[in-house]
Please model this.
Amino acid sequence: MLIVKKFGGSSVKDKEHIFNVAERCAEEYRKGNDVIVVLSAMGDTTDELIAKAKDINPNASRREMDMLLTTGEQVSVSLMAMAIATLGVPTVSLNAFQVGMHSTSAYGNARFKKVDTDRIEHELEYRKIVIVTGFQGINKYEDYATLGRGGSDTTAVAIAAALHADACEIYTDVDGVYTADPRIVPNARKLEQISYDEMLELASLGAKVLHNRSVEMAKKYGVQLVVRSSLNRSEGTVVKEVAKMEKMLISGVASDKNTSRVSVIGVDDKPGIAFKIFNTLAKKGINVDIILQSVGRGGTKDISFTVAQDDLNETLSTLEENKDALTIQEINHKDNVAKISIVGAGMMSNPGVAAKMFEALFNARVNINMISTSEVRITVLIDENDVERAMIAVHDRFGLAG
Model:
């Protein structure tokens, strides 16, 4: 069997954790399986590198940031190769360039275009454990381009898809996917299974267990994922096409504090304005989530939407630069907001789910600023200070406790 194992930064944060991972990989190898390991940077390395960059140049280009940040994974894979070698198992570490992880040119938010398999297959033929840097690709300029936070998950899925791996295991510091973040909701329950669609929504809405693009890719190529802890041997959660959710109405509650609300006031109330605004932002690679448009009055209307806090400054500067062309009279924003979402395939055929959520928030004295819905999720924008109270109230109202 060919097994792809991905370990996050907390799983390789120091010598003790590195050797724990090395032992687990060597154990898999000794069963006769081919093993590919994908690693993130050690512990808080990425945050430390970002802090160093800001100290030198707060306005550093995204290209140079990617040159810097990709060094974190190169450190972790080389140290892991050294650790596995001490266990008497042949191994080799490879970066994105050596493998041929071809990506788009969007520094800081690249997407994979193609994965070359020749080098990995060659090393596997020599019965080596192959250790690959996560989070990074090589663009058409032969520059490193990172995939965004959590991108190592996507690296693992891309490799598993390209090589038709028998299993893709995502190891983290939690032992599976829970109905809510157990650090916020103590009685959250671990799920045995969850569907791609539900996991994709949870990942997109703030659940930090899996990178949303990794789930998107796993669904596209039929890569079944298992999320489990690197610190114990529990079974974890299986992410696949159809999950037996015990007919649960809601599978999880997620929150995301990395959110800002932006409002453009007094734009012309005529066809094409919304397109022009969001197309202008899209050209800058800015993703927009919840959108609320007011009823037109006096020939104008207001449009409010949410963006990631990381994109706020660029969003505001882009809108300001194009203020006249977009007929914007005023721009304002709010930072101290957060999204709370419920996700579940069961809500498609059950009326009253939204009312139940809103009732829970009302009872918890949480005010709703904006609302967005889809077939499998409902998202509301609330004050950041209300997140924990809202999460617990909604989780309890839907009976998700373990």
The longest helix spans residues 62-86. The chain has a mean pLDDT of 93. The two ends are 35 Å apart (CA to CA). The first strand starts at residue 2 and ends at 7.
